[in-house]
Amino acid sequence: MHTLSPHLPGPAKLSAALLGVLLAAGCAPYLPAAPADAGVDVPAGWSQPGSGGSQPLALWWRGFGDPLLVELVDAAQRANTDLGIAQANLREARALRDAAAAGLWPTLSVSASARRSSGGGASAGSLFDAGFDAAWEPDIFGASRHGVGVAEATAQARALTLAGTEVSVAAEVATSYLQLRGSQARAAFARENLAAQEQTLQIAQWREQAGLGSSLETSQARSAVEQTRAQLPVLRASIAQTSHALAVLTGRPPAALDAQLATAAALPRAPADLALAIPAATLRQRPDVLAAEWQLRAAAERVSQADALRRPAVQLRASLAWSAATLGSIGSIDAARSLVASIGQTLFDRGRLDAQLAAQEAAFDAARQSYRARVLTALQEVEDALWALAASRDRVGALESALLSTRDAVLLANNRYTSGLIDFQTVLETQRTLLNVQDSLASAQTELATNHVRLYKAHGGGWGPAATNPGNPS
């Protein structure tokens, strides 16, 4: 450590000495490759076409036209515990960023003390001290500045992680709500079929009593009734569990929504006017991709910071001090002044600083691969959602046609059985087919709606414009 005397005639010698040491330090700071250059070949379009509409993404759940769904998503955005954690993490990151930024400025401190002493029969004496101290470490090679860059990038990543949590929570609430309504629809179909099968059982019993049928027909009818009845407890449990999940997502105890959700309602239908952006635009509106980019920037700043820490460290200190026998005389006494400039450079550390730089370079490469993986995953999620949505539409259309035919078959079978034209087994088969088709259609309609939610989420919908991207920090 080199210390310059406070008795230099002026700042000229101080500046010259500092400049000489800094020039001897050598090369310019290390800068890694641009964070956004992750080597991802983004396609120009999607393999499945989108619609020509303009459904907004930020509040996509409103497009389902279900006030209760809107209420639940809004409640979750206010009270969900995962969002609360993300918000606290963001506040922490911003505070650490402000603390890092404060380190770029000089520090000023003040001190005062009073002493009174006596001894050897002499009269007591007093001594008062007061002083000001200032210290500053000029950020010549940018170690502190890059530290602020790390903190800023981390804060921006946390903001986008919060936005990503908003996206996930909105999608999870909507998916759970749609599944609950789908389970209620399946339960309604099961009860409807149960009532029809109980009527068939009654007919079989009458025919047996009249000698027109056999006990085998009655037993088969009773078996069909009990099999359908056995589905109802499973569906009731699914409805209750989904209701509990919605309550917890909205920050409430599990049973808090049971009464509100007990009344069955129609499955909400998604709007058909979602206009898909091109892949590049989709990536810029997905908060998880933007967060990964900020994390890559933070890794780049850490590399530059590790390189800067290998350079000389400069410190400037100045102080003013007064000492007086009385408190009132401090201001009338000339202050003792000092100015100290010091430069420190590590000469031997067995490669510790170089190893730390190498470690940060490796971490940067890992962050680059993580960013690339996030981009590829985002593209895959959109493609998968588009294909799933198209398949769901086709499946629902086919099952709707099948349901019309199956209902006609059930009606015809019942009439013919009553007239004695067909056997009882045909009636049971048509009723069983009807239940299966109705159940499959309710599941397919639920899947179609949830695939819309999946596409909204994959497309980056569900967060507000407050979060930023790396090209526009706040």
Q: Could you characterize what this model shows?
A:
This protein is an alpha+beta fold and 474 residues long. It has a domain at 39-103 and 154-309 and 352-458: Outer membrane efflux proteins (OEP), CATH 1.20.1600.10. It is 61% helix and 10% strand. The protein contains ten helices and five strands, in the order E-H-H-H-E-E-H-H-H-H-H-E-E-H-H. It has helices at residues 11-25, 67-79, 81-102, 143-209, 215-249, 258-262, 279-284, 287-308, 352-418, 424-458, and strands spanning 2-4, 107-117, 125-136, 313-324, 336-344. The chain has a five-stranded antiparallel β-sheet with strand order 1-5-4-3-2, covered by helices on one side. Helix 8 runs antiparallel to helix 9.
What topology does this entry show?
Elements: E1 2-4, H1 11-25, H2 67-79, H3 81-102, E2 107-117, E3 125-136, H4 143-209, H5 215-249, H6 258-262, H7 279-284, H8 287-308, E4 313-324, E5 336-344, H9 352-418, H10 424-458
Antiparallel strand pairs: 1-5, 2-3, 3-4, 4-5
Helix pairs in contact: 2-4, 3-4, 4-5, 4-8, 4-10, 5-10, 8-9, 9-10
- Class based on secondary structure composition and strand pairing: alpha+beta
- Total strands: the figure is 5
What is the tally of helical segments?
A: 10
Strand percentage, roughly?
5-15%
Shape: elongated
How are the strands of the biggest sheet laid out side by side?
A: 1-5-4-3-2
- Integer average pLDDT: 83
CATH architecture of the domain at 39-103 and 154-309 and 352-458: Up-down Bundle
CATH superfamily name of the domain at 39-103 and 154-309 and 352-458? Outer membrane efflux proteins (OEP)
Ranges with pLDDT <50 over ≥5 residues? 1-37, 466-474
